[in-house]
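Minutes, project huddle
Topic: does the predicted pose make sense with DQA bound?
PN asked that the exact inputs be recorded in the minutes so nobody has to dig through chat later. Recorded below.
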Amino acid sequence: MTKKIKKIQVVNGPNLNMLGKREPEIYGSLTLDQINADLAQQAMLLGLDLRFFQSNHEGAIVDKIHEIFDDKIDGIIINPGAFTHTSIALRDAMAFMSCPIVEIHLSNIYKREAFRHKSMLADIVTGQIAGFGHYGYQMALNAIANMINES
Ligand code: DQA
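Predicted holo structure (C-alpha cells), as shared on screen:
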C-alpha cells in the first residue's frame, strides 16, 4: 500500500514578514524567507508536504484555517504573533482542528511584558515552543513529524 504524503501548514501572523529587520535583538536576524527555506529543506528530508502562509490580517488567517480544515491538513505550526494574546476568532477557528498543532514563538513570551504571558491558544494547541528563536520552527516540525509517524 502506498503511504499518503502528509501535509503540514506553517502559519505566521502579523509583523513576522518583517523578521530580519524587526527588533533583531528579540527575534533574530533571519528573514522569514530564510526560516522557510530551512524548513522546506527539513520537510523534504522528512518526506512531508510543507506549505507556508503569512498574513498581517486576522480574518485572512481565520480564512486560511478554514481552508486547511477542508483540505484535511495533517499538522499545523503556527506563530500567531500579537494575535496570540488577543484573538478569540483565531482561537475559535483552531479549536475545531483535530490534527496536531504546535504554537511557536521566537521569543520566550513568558520572560517578556505581562500582556504577552497570556496565549488565547495555549489550552487548545497540542503544545507550545517559545524562546528558541528560529530553531523553534524546526523543533515544531520534528515534533509533528514524529507524532504523525506514530499515529
Ligand atoms: C511572537 C511574540 C508575540 O508576543 C509578538 O507579538 C510577535 C512575535 C514571537 O514569535 O516571539 O509578533 O509571537
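Observations noted during the meeting:
- The helical segments are 24-27, 32-46, 58-70, 88-95, 135-150.
- Strands lie at 7-12, 49-54, 75-79, 101-105, 127-130.
No decisions taken; revisit at the next huddle.
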